[in-house]
């Protein structure tokens, strides 16, 4: 599956989550790209959205269903710090939601006891950026070089 951009990926992820029966859902976007997708999902479902940063405060998740949104999942390692921080607050459940994921990463997280919702698990998996037609401005390759200072 190829996504036009993070907006389209968020709309499709919202459709996948729409009929989930979740107790007090809270979307948490991991990194700028995950937050971009989470904001679209939150807009479509009317769910609150919060960013997750390693240095920032974690919103209270006790008793809530946390949906950790990542723009793509190549490896479970990048989500591990967020999962550890959130798990310490005793949420009712943590679901990892992503538009695209490597099948092995999904399986590893499922074996660790997490529910993973991935719209696409292509094999062979290349890189996350290959599954987006238009990279967002937060990706280094998409950021234009700085203009030279005026003479």
What would you say about this model in short?
The chain is of the alpha/beta class and 151 residues long. 29% of the residues lie in helices and 19% in strands. A five-stranded parallel beta sheet has the order 2-1-3-4-5, with helices on both faces.
List keywords for this structure.
5 strands; Rossmann fold; single chain; globular; 151 residues; 5-stranded parallel beta sheet; 19% strand; alpha/beta
Question: Please, could you describe this protein's structure?
Answer:
The protein has 151 residues and is an alpha/beta fold. The chain has helices spanning 6-17, 31-45, 80-87, 103-111, and strands spanning 25-30, 49-52, 65-69, 93-100, 115-120. A five-stranded parallel β-sheet has the order 2-1-3-4-5, with helices on both faces. Strand 1, helix 2 (31-45) and strand 2 form a beta-alpha-beta unit.
Q: What is the overall number of helices?
A: 4
Which structural class do the helices and strands define?
alpha/beta
Low-confidence stretches: 139-151
SSE string, helices as H and strands as E:
HEHEEHEHE
Distance between the termini: 47 Å
Query: What is the radius of gyration?
Result: 16 Å
General shape: globular
CATH architecture: 3-Layer(aba) Sandwich
Total of domains = 1
Tally the beta strands.
5
Topology:
Layout: H1 6-17, E1 25-30, H2 31-45, E2 49-52, E3 65-69, H3 80-87, E4 93-100, H4 103-111, E5 115-120
Parallel strand pairs: 1-2, 1-3, 3-4, 4-5
Helix pairs in contact: 1-2
